[in-house]
């Protein structure tokens, strides 16, 4: 089993998992690593090694001087390039493949799809399914990137967290699924960020809008917003928000 050649499908699923795990939780004892190993008939150590290979080709880690494991670079690099070229297609197809390996349908993996697409057929249904699946996966990636915590408040209750886009969903189709375009925020701060009531400067500190500061006398402002000005957010384990995206948000969305 140790000498069995890795297939493209297996490498695709390894990258799918790599994107969903915090950087410090990719070893062979991680439950998600063990689960994928079981699905693929491989050892957890083999899966962990492939995750290290993907860390080696990940541009973010290259910029940080973190090298990962270089031994399998030639095998994993084309898979990474496929993801970088078309995240939309790659993530959706990798989720379909993961469902198949687990002998499930895509609806079994994401049960809410059944009622979200009820009554739809053909291309209309297919498009919505793809959009929703990728939104769910993007949330998983962003949540993992911020260790399951709101970057501002530290809240770690998954049901209260949102994968907030910096470049709005409607503004840039190409960057919708870019991990560098996501921040994990609680529902309150996600809404405030989305509406331009708060923003992030390029040093990753919070700025509060004049529109919100006008409510400084309100008890809710004192409780939830008064301490935010110049507060540095908790930085992610892998992908920091692109400064160009933050600048766009400050210029085009933030109310000033």
From TrEMBL:
Keywords per UniProt: Endonuclease, Hydrolase, Nuclease
Top-level taxon in the UniProt lineage: Bacteria
Gene Ontology MF: a single term: endonuclease activity
Protein name as catalogued: HNH endonuclease
Start and end residues of each HNH nuclease domain: 150-200
